[in-house]
Amino acid sequence: MELVNAFVGLIQLIIAIILAVVALYIGYSTFSKITGGMDETSELKNGNVAVGIVIAAILFAIAIVVQSGVAGISMGIMDALAGDWLSLVAAFIQLMLGIILAIAAIYLSLNVMDRLTKDIDEFAELKRGNVAISLMMAGVIVATAVIIQSGVIGITSALL
Q1: Is the pLDDT of residue 140 over 80?
Q2: Looking at residue 137, what is its pLDDT?
């Protein structure tokens, strides 16, 4: 049984690494699309801390959600080894759904925040290096991820 647990742990680690890279790439790419023409790489090279804070928050938020989904994968692997392959498929579906929901929720929460702060152009402020705005945005992003994580765990419980 210890060998099986080690095997499951190794598979979980490999899956976690692959999904982390993919999810973080998707998150960074998504942020690049919603910033309205800002060159994030250039801003980071120039030391724009405000942009760095928001990008870090997005990456952290996606990691929070992916982490909860990876835990479901190990349960799915154990069930698959016992003959229930459908459980593994459900775990992967849940994880992909979690990543999609996380990115969509972050995008939606930033849009809601933008509507609530009509007199502030958040992305223009980020480009100017406004750390206060970036911290507000980071708070919204991470809070959204924590809330979404609970939903991903709920999906896992329902599917597995």
Answers
A1: yes
A2: 92
pTM of the model: 0.78
Q: Return the ∠ at Cα 33 (arms to 120 and 39), rounded to 5°.
A: 75
49-52 long-range CB contacts below 8 Å, 24 or more apart?
Answer: 49/129, 49/131, 49/134, 50/125, 50/126, 50/128, 50/129, 50/130, 50/131, 50/133, 50/134, 51/126, 51/127, 51/129, 51/134
Single-letter amino acid, residue 132: A
Tell me the per-residue pLDDT of 64-86, one tens digit each, with 9 for 90 and over: 877 776 766 767 777 777 777 78
Can you give the residue range of the structural domain that contains 27?
2-159
Half-sphere exposure at residue 80, Cβ-oriented, CA atoms within 13 angstroms = 19
Q: What is the distance between the alpha carbons of residues 10 and 56, in angstroms, rounded to a whole number?
A: 27
Structural domain count of the chain: 1
